[in-house]
Every structure is written in C-alpha cells, then in structure tokens.
C-alpha cells in the first residue's frame, strides 16, 4: 500500500515542481517590466498598464490607446471590454489599475468600501464616454417616427400593442402606420444601456413606466438580443420590431425622435453632451467623484436626454510612481478635448463639454504615487 | 530448438522483462495520477461553486431582477428552460443519430460509410459560436415561413401557440441547432456499439429468415441498448451545458412556458450566466454562480440516473 501511495504522489510532485519553476520565470519577467520606471525625468512614460470594464467604451478605448501609445512609445496599455461589473470587481481587487464602468460606484456601498480599501482613499470617478441611445425600429416604408417618452414607455410595457395605435398616430401626421403587432426587443444581458433607457422611461415617462431603473430588463415578455449587436440583429431580422441601442449602431434602421419640451429631437452627440452639462452632480458625490444625476427631463433646445454616461475609475494613489504617472497621463488624455474628439470620431460618442473636461482634469491631477 | 532451453528463459529476455516492469510502473502511476487529478479538478470546481455560490442564495431580492424574490423562484424557470430545450434537442437529434449510425454500420456500402462517418465526426469539431452565428442569423431567417405556418395552422398544440416571432429567433430554431450539435456524439457512440454486435447473433437471425430490419430489431438493438443510452446521455450532457448556441440563437426569458415559436421562450441556466455575468455586480455574480451550482448538481443527478439505468439493463442482460 505504501509503495502504491508513493507511486501516485511522485508524478504529482514533479508537476508541482515544474509549475513552481514556471511561475518563478513568470514572476521575474513581470518584475523587469515593472521596474522600467521613467529614467529621464517625468515626461517619458513607460511600462504596462492594465484596465478593463465597460464594453460600451470598447471602441473608444481602442482609439485612445492607439493615440496615447503613439505619443508614448514606452507605454503598453490593455483594455479588456469584459463588461462594467467584471471591470469594477477587477478594479476593486487591484487586478486593473483603472476601469471603465457604465454605472458609477455609489457611496456608500460594499463596492465603494472595497475600492477605498484597495486604493487607500476615496476612488476617483470621472465621466469619459457620453453616448446617445437611439430608439430604433424596423417598419416597412417608415424611416423616422416622433414619440414622447410616455408613448415609448407604453410601447415597452405592452400597453400600446399595434403600430397604428392612436397614441402613435396622433404624433405622426402623414405617416402610414400598418395595423400590425409591435414586437419590442430588449437586451437579454444586464447592461448599462438598459439602466439608462429604463431610467429615462421612469423619469420622463409621466408615470407610464412603473418599474425601477435597472440593468436587468424588468419584464420577461418580448424579443431579446445579447449585446448591442444582438439587439440590432434581432430588429433587422423581423418587421414590426422596436428596440433601443447605442446610437452609433443604428445604421439602416428607423430612428425615433423623442419629444423634448415642445419639439422632437433625433439622437445627436451635441444634444447628449448638452444634457450632461445641464445635469447636477449626484447627491453622494465626494470631491474625487464627477458623477451625474442625469437630467432626463431637460427641455433645452436640441437636448437629447436619452443618454448613457460611462465613467473611468482610478485610485488617488498608486504604490509605484510609474503606474501613477501612466494612469494620470492616460486618463487625462481621455478626458481632454483631443481625446474626446478621437473617441467621437471612432465610436460616434459625444465629446465632454469643455467645462466637464476641465473639472475631470482637475480631479485626475490629484493622482500621485504613495 | 531443444526442450531444455525453452524451460529457462535466456538472460536477454529477463533483462527486458526488468525494463518492462519499470515501464509498467511508470505507466500505471501516470494513469492513476491522471485519474486522481480529474477527480481533484471536479472536486475543485464543486468547492468553487459551493464557496462562491452559497452567498448568492441570500442576497438582496432586487439582485434577482424581473420580480423574483427568492433564489429558488429565480432559478426554477431557468432549470425548467434548461431541461425543456435539452429535451427538444434530444427529440430532434436521437432519431436522426440512430438512423445515421445504423446507415453507417449496417446499410451503407463501405465506400460510402467511411466518408459519411468522417463528415459526421467533423460536425463535432465546429465551434459552438459558429453554430450560434449560423442559427441566429441564417437558420432563423430561413425558418420564418415554417414558424409562421406553425403559428397559423398548428396553434392548437401548446408548443406552437404563437403568435409567431417576427424574426425566427425562437426556441424551435435553438432546438434544431442544438440537435445538430449533439448529433455527432450520439452517432459516433451508437455506430461503435452497433458495429460490435456479435456476428453470430446477426447470422443466426438471418439463418432464421429475418429481413435486415428484423436483424437490427432482434439482434443489434437489444445488444446495443445500453451503449446507445450512454451516447444519448453524453449528448444530453452537452445540450444541458451548451451556452453560446442557445445564447446567440433565440430570444429568451426566465419563465415557465411551452410556446417555442413566440417572441420569447424559456431561458437556460447556461445562457442566463453568459448573458449576465459580464455586467453583474458582486452580489449578482454570486447568484449566477449559485445557478451554476444548481446546473452542476442537476447534471450529476442525470448522469447518476443514467448510470443506474444502464447498469440495471446490463444486469438483466447478464441474467
């Protein structure tokens, strides 16, 4: 019996030894990379920076990384568009130096405490990506519709069932609406887009939307698609469908102009940025947080209050100077006018207003090494 | 060669036997190591699910979303959906798989049987995400007329109650895709056991004047029964855990319903985890892992019952 046991253990021990030696190799590699601190005084950043999170920011992050790495050849940044929730968890555990998230970490919450612990101080949260959400539909011969928030809410809660319902027809003189069923399409995955869309319906829908704003679509009826592309595929695949998606992905589909004040506005980057600029900071915001309670009932000229605001999360202090300098440099670039324009042309997002951009820069300026 | 020399082996042979004994030991040890390691891995997965999943049983009810108040309310429809969609896939795949396997082992001429078997095996190598894309974009569009027809004329059957989905991304489409995906597993195993039917049994049946179908019914199928069931169970296992195909093909929600051609159909546990994990908060992640634990336990029970059924069949056969 003794020998059998030994026979069983030997290969396992060998495998462990091998794994340990491999891990040791890995460690030494990381160390050399991490020790490449700026040698020639400040401006030359170098090293590796890992971040990730919001997939909405994914396309813009690609553009930002390309531009920033072009200017700082020693820096290698990775952004994993794994989703906001996973991004926040990885940031809170310290695996990511920075993260993108469609929802800010509210204070107080368990996540906020975890982030505080990892960062050794109040985490920094600044807006980086503003994007209008379009209500899109597939209806033969109709390219655009005018709808107020209450009608949109009634369509998505199932009260308005047909395309020729008087509530739709009364707002769309001269449009031929078919006597066909409306099929709503929602996101099957938890999503910041759903959160912002339901928040809009809940605040602007004049009571027609009963559910709390949430990342998860509240109802189990209707069509669904996985991710923005899934929703778009689902809408393109069948007539009589209506859904919501990032406005940059709405190509080829009918787009709803939503009622703002007394006019109907189509989704636009300027309208989205204007709404964020007109919004108050969230009541819980600390000095290091630029988080907005988006004004969903904004009636300003040209405003488009159906908008998604995505944030960057960072720590006020980092253990090593190189990481602190890189995070500061990269995030400052993202919120700068130059970075915002790069994001807008790559992803169709709305650039931050210069005022918002300045406020974000001031907060990011505080990032320092321990 | 004299008789004396054959009684005592020459030294060369005994030396080789010594080497063999060493090789034997190494091989036995590594085989045993592999066996134990896989048990360890499985136990590791189970412990992970348990530790990460238990907190998910008692989170703030609003984490479950969609009006569910307890974990069991939340996971119930998902478990139902998992079983429902998998059974539909089996209904699609099993008759096909058995027919294909019999064709390869008993009907097709050899020069046809080999390429057909090869192509079916190739089907198993297609990544599930490719099946997902194909099902969600191509097959669903192609099935639209079928779905409309079912909704118009067969809507008295609960499965086809309708109203028909406008874009064909239905549970029916998903069941067909899933059926194609599990087909190669069931076919491959059934083919092997069919081919191993004792020649004498088949010849005896032919000798009694049986037709080819009667040979299959009297000699091949009873002999192969437990092997075929094992193949079906492996296929069911794949269907229960399949993620990408069901996530990408049809529009789903966690609810109890039988309609498979409507706007929405029951969601599976795997699809629910894949859909929601990326954006989930820490608490919701625990909930999803707990749902994974439920699937793990359920798969375990299904396999356990299958083993028991096969074992019982074999014992009966041996008697």
Explain this structure.
The complex is a heterodimer of chains A (370) and B (319). With 370 residues, chain A is of the alpha/beta class. Chain A has 2 domains: 19-131 and 278-369, 3-Layer(aba) Sandwich (D-Maltodextrin-Binding Protein, domain 2), CATH 3.40.190; 140-266, Periplasmic binding protein-like II (D-Maltodextrin-Binding Protein, domain 2, 3-Layer(aba) Sandwich), CATH 3.40.190. Chain A is built from 12 helices and 15 strands. In chain A, the strands form 3 sheets. In chain A, strands 1, 2, 3, 4, 5, 6, 7, 8, 9, 10 and 13 form an 11-stranded mixed sheet that branches. Chain A has a two-stranded antiparallel ribbon with strand order 11-12. In chain A, strand 9 and strand 10 (263-265) form a beta hairpin. In chain A, helix 3 (84-92) crosses helix 4. The N and C termini of chain A lie far apart (57 Å). With 319 residues, chain B is mainly α. Chain B is built from 11 helices and 2 strands. Chain B has helices at residues 3-7, 11-53, 71-107, 110-123, 128-153, 171-195, 199-207, 212-241, 244-249, 269-276, 282-318; strands at residues 252-253, 265-266. In chain B, helix 2 crosses helix 11 (282-318) and helix 3 packs across helix 6 (171-195). Chain B has a single domain (59-318), classed as MetI-like fold (Orthogonal Bundle), CATH 1.10.3720. Chain B is globular and about 70 Å long. The model of chain B is unreliable at 1-6 (pLDDT under 50). The longest helix of chain B is centred in the first third of the chain and has 43 residues, at 11-53. In chain B, 75% of the residues lie in helices and 1% in strands. The chains are: A alpha/beta (370), B mainly alpha (319). Chains A and B meet through helix 1, helix 3, helix 4, strand 7 and helix 8 of A and helix 2, helix 5, strand 1, helix 10 and helix 11 of B.
């Amino acid at each position: 019996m003794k020998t059998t046991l030994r026979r069983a253990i030997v290969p396992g021990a060998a495998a462990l030894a091998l794994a340990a030696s491999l891990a040791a190799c890995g460690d030494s590699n990381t160390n050399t990379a991490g020790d490449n601190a700026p040698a020639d005084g400040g401006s030359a950043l170098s090293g590796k920076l890992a971040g990730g999170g919001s997939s909405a920011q994914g396309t813009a992050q690609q553009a930002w990384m390309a531009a920033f790495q072009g200017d700082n050849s020693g820096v290698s940044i990775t952004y994993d568009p794994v989703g906001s929730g996973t991004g926040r968890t990885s940031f809170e555990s310290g695996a990511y130096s920075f993260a993108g998230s469609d929802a800010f970490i509210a204070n107080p919450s368990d996540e906020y405490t975890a982030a505080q612990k990892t960062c050794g101080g109040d985490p920094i949260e600044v807006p980086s990506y503003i994007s209008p959400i379009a209500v899109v539909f597939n209806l033969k011969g109709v390219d655009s519709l005018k709808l107020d928030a209450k009608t949109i809410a009634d369509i998505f809660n199932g009260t308005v069932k047909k395309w020729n319902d008087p509530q739709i027809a009364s707002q769309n003189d001269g449009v031929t609406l078919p006597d066909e069923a409306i099929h709503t399409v929602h996101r099957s995955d938890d999503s910041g887009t759903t959160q912002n869309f339901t928040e809009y319906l809940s605040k602007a829908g004049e009571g027609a939307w009963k559910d709390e704003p949430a990342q998860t679509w509240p109802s189990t009826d209707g069509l669904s698609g996985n991710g923005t592309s899934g929703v778009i595929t689902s809408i393109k695949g069948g007539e009589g469908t209506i859904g919501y998606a990032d406005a940059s992905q709405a190509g080829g589909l009918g787009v709803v102009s939503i009622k703002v004040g007394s006019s109907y506005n189509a989704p636009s980057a300027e309208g989205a940025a204007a709404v964020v600029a007109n919004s108050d900071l969230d009541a819980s915001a600390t000095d290091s947080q630029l988080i907005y309670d988006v004004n969903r009932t904004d009636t300003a000229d040209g405003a488009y209050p159906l908008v998604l605001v995505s944030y960057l999360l960072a720590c006020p202090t980092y253990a090593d100077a190189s990481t602190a300098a890189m995070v500061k440099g990269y995030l400052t670039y993202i919120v700068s006018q130059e970075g915002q324009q790069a994001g807008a042309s790559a992803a169709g997002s709305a650039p931050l207003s210069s005022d918002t951009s300045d406020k974000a820069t001031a907060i990011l300026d505080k990032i320092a090494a321990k | 060669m004299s008789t004396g020399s054959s009684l005592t082996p020459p030294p060369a042979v005994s030396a080789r036997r010594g080497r063999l004994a060493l090789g034997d030991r190494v091989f036995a040890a590594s085989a045993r190591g592999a066996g134990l390691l896989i048990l360890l891995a499985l136990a590791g997965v189970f412990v992970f699910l348990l530790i990460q999943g238990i907190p998910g049983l008692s989170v703030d009810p609003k984490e479950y979303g969609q009006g569910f108040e307890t974990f069991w309310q939340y996971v119930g429809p998902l478990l139902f959906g998992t079983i429902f969609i998998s059974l539909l896939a089996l209904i699609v795949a099993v008759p096909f798989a058995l027919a294909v396997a019999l064709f390869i082992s008993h009907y097709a001429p050899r020069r046809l049987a080999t390429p057909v078997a090869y192509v079916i095996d190739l089907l198993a190598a297609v990544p599930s995400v490719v099946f997902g894309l194909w099902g969600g974009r191509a097959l669903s569009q192609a099935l639209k007329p079928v779905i409309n027809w079912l909704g118009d004329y067969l809507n008295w059957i609960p499965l086809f109650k309708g109203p028909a989905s406008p874009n064909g991304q239905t549970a029916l489409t998903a069941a067909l895709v899933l059926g194609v995906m599990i087909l190669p597993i069931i076919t491959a195993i059934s083919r092997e056991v069919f081919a191993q039917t004792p020649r004498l049994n088949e010849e005896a049946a032919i000798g009694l004047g049986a037709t080819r179908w009667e040979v299959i019914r009297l000699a091949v199928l009873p002999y192969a029964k437990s092997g075929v069931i094992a193949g079906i169970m492996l296929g069911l296992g794949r269907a229960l855990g399949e993620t990408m195909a069901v996530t990408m093909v049809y529009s789903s929600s966690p609810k109890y319903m039988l309609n498979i051609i409507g706007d929405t159909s029951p969601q599976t546990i795997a699809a629910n985890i894949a859909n929601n994990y990326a954006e989930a908060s820490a608490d919701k992640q625990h909930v999803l892992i707990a749902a994974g634990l439920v699937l793990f336990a359920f798969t375990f029970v299904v396999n356990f019952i299958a083993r028991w059924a096969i074992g019982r069949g074999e014992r009966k056969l041996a008697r």
